[in-house]
Amino acid sequence: MSWVTPDNNAPQATGVPSDVKLQGGCLCGAIRYEIDGPLTEVGNCHCSMCRRFHGAAFGTYAKIVAERFRWLKGDDLLSAYETSPGIGWAFCRICGSSLGIPNHGKLSEITLGSLDSDPGVRPTEHIFVGSKAAWYEITDALPQHHTWPPGRAR
Ligand SMILES: [Zn+2]
Ligand SMILES: [Zn+2]
Question: Which of 61, 71, 97, 145 could pair covalently with 26 via S-S, beta carbons 3.0-4.6 A apart?
Fold first, then answer.
């Protein structure tokens, strides 16, 4: 995947005002990023690809917009496993940490697990529960969608 060079001087996104700056990065520390929060559309994906990519019961993601996201360092070490051209899963080339969902050269979602601290938001839904691991039981009351929620796709 070739990554779009971020424009760190781009104007801030309008709409929801940003009142929180969040930072995160990979396990080895080579890749670091910053987001102007708040984060939105936080959900747990139980699909078989997210399970394999994370080696876990599910992946938790939040949607990001490019204007509110910037790499602090190490974006040259960002790699991606593509399931179709430009789409897949992004990870650190050194330590393998999962960092998000790339969409044609930019991240469109980040993994909540790569954040340093409490983003203040919580997952609001489970998606692709039709592919859920048999050994994991969902015990919260959040909405569950068999695949994508109605009207939404990645
Ligand atoms: Zn790393
Ligand atoms: Zn998934």
Answer: 97
